[in-house]
Design brief:
Blueprint: H1 3-28, H2 32-37, E1 47-49, H3 58-63, E2 69-72, H4 76-89, E3 94-97, E4 111-117, H5 126-136, E5 137-148, H6 166-175, E6 178-185, E7 190-197
Parallel strand pairs: 1-2, 1-4, 2-3, 4-5
Antiparallel strand pairs: 5-7, 6-7
Amino acid sequence: MNHMGHHNQLDQKFLSKIAFLDSRQREHLIPPEALISQMPIQKNHTLLDVGAGSGFFTISMAESTSSKVYAMDPDRRMLSVIEDKAKEKGLTNIELIQDYIENLSIQNNSIDFVMASLILHEVSSLTKALSNIFKVLKSGGYLLCLEYEKDDLIIEGPPMSIRIGSEELEEVLSLNGFEIVKKTKINDAIYTILAVKRER
């Protein structure tokens, strides 16, 4: 197969992945605007979306603050999708970071709210990821995790073996200094945990 053909195929695959992510997430989750509006986010807050993907939550987050939103994803192409969406909506407060959560290198104690949507099951070390998030959060800052429940009846979503059940996630969050504020079941498959970085 010639190289160009292969390249186009990859692009096609990538584009359909984005369409899939956007539509599937829209179908299954409460609308991002609704979720973000329920969060303890204030107009001057600095936000971080650690699994930004195609910007499903990033865009709503950027609309909810006049401060900066960091959008983090290891895939450069995902970030350019976010860039396009931001341009389209005239949002100028999104800063793109191409990296993995395990390498998170934002200034310590600088973030008010972190969104981790459907990303924690993909990290190589959950403890490392959460301790990095803990470090960059201000004292009293919040982390919202959104994940697939580890339930054999739920076939959809990532393989069972890599999922993080809500009880396990609660435990690891607590071990890493977070206090659980609220646990919500969004639907059969997906739950959220809102946690806060305790005042030391």
